């Protein structure tokens, strides 16, 4: 299945953040995911309970990720967790069917599709992996903000 462009509303999430290289994050992800799932019951106001792995930003070789769940609003944030708002905007969405370990191939297919269709993706690699169920994932990659790119070019 090919990606499609969708408009996403702002979403508030609560979860654990981690930073490191792609390799470090990949190595830590299973432990962080298990830790998060053990503590997820403490998060009030959860919406659908879907696990989200969010790549917040990239700075050189360092990435910041958040393993989180969507909430209706911020009430109480469990110890060690933080809240953030996923910005509204346009995203490339791919419905991916496969194992969690194969999700990276789904993101690569979004990148290939974007290049073939002249779609500009967010340079900071703002991506969201939502686990809908075992073997069913929604992969989002934020599109580049044309207005901020124009400002950067003008400066």
TrEMBL record:
It holds the Pfam family GyrI-like. Residues 1-144 form the AraC effector-binding domain. It comes from the Bacteria. InterPro entries: AraC_E-bd, GyrI-like, Reg_factor_effector_dom_sf. Transmembrane segments: none annotated. This is AraC effector-binding domain-containing protein. The lineage of its organism: Bacteria, Bacillati, Bacillota, Bacilli, Bacillales.
């Amino acid at each position: 299945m090919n990606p499609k462009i969708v408009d996403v509303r702002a979403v508030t999430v609560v979860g654990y953040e981690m930073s490191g290289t792609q390799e470090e994050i990949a190595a830590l992800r299973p432990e962080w995911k298990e830790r998060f799932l053990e503590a997820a019951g403490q998060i009030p106001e959860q919406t659908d309970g879907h696990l989200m792995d969010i790549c917040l930003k990239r700075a050189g070789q360092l990435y910041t990720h958040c393993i989180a769940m969507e909430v209706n609003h911020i009430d109480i944030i469990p110890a060690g967790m933080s809240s953030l708002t996923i910005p509204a905007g346009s995203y490339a969405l791919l419905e991916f069917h496969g194992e969690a370990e194969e999700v990276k191939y789904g993101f690569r297919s979004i990148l290939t599709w974007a290049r073939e269709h002249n779609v500009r993706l967010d340079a900071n690699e703002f991506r969201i992996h939502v686990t809908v169920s075992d073997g069913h994932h929604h992969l989002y990659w934020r599109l580049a903000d044309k207005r901020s790119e124009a400002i950067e070019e003008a400066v």
